[in-house]
Amino acid sequence: MSTATPDSRPIKVLVYSDDVNTRQQVILALGRRPHPELPEFEYVEVATEPVVLQNMDAGDISLAILDGEAVPAGGMGIAKQLKDEIYQCPPVIVLTGRPQDAWLATWSRAEAAVPHPIDPLQLAEAVIGLMRPSVPATT
């Protein structure tokens, strides 16, 4: 079992939605440190597709949470583009309009889907499940 130390490098989480309220719900649901074995989270809030692509291309994002209901570019289409174009793309979680839309996340190649309205426990569970395996063990 790995344990993160307080001096661990923060995990950079990109949160994309055209709706500032949705971005804030995600950030509030996860908080600074959703699990004791993970380093603190540092959030990058993004409201447009070009800025998502710019941040993801830079290579310092560890996790992307994309709003599937965002307009004009939905998170599922962006997720598919990221998975097609970025070598070793970081994990992606798509926020779906409803639980029945989870099958669309499969098409987008996102690793997880969480429906609106955002359930903080369900979102944290998905994030922790994706991020815990990537936390380096400390010696």
Structural commentary:
By secondary structure, the chain is α/β, with parallel strands linked by helices. It has a single domain (11-133), classed as 3-Layer(aba) Sandwich (Rossmann fold). It contains five helices and five strands. The chain has helices at residues 20-30, 49-58, 75-85, 102-108, 120-131; strands spanning 11-16, 41-46, 63-67, 92-96, 112-115. The protein has a five-stranded parallel β-sheet, sandwiched between helices. The longest helix is centred in the C-terminal third of the chain and has 12 residues, at 120-131. The protein is globular. Mean pLDDT is 90; it is low at 1-6.
Helix-and-strand structural type: alpha/beta
Q: How would a crystallographer describe the biggest sheet?
A: 5 strands, parallel
Q: Which CATH class applies here?
A: Alpha Beta
- Average pLDDT figure: 90
Strand order of the largest sheet: 2-1-3-4-5
H/E element string?
EHEHEHEHEH
- Annotated CATH architecture: 3-Layer(aba) Sandwich
Measured by DSSP, the beta-strand proportion falls in 15-25%
Domain count: 1
Helix content: 25-40%
Write the layout of secondary structure elements.
Blueprint: E1 11-16, H1 20-30, E2 41-46, H2 49-58, E3 63-67, H3 75-85, E4 92-96, H4 102-108, E5 112-115, H5 120-131
Parallel strand pairs: 1-2, 1-3, 3-4, 4-5
Helix pairs in contact: 1-5, 3-4
Short structural summary:
This protein has 139 residues and is of the alpha/beta class. It has five helices and five strands. The relative contact order is 0.20.
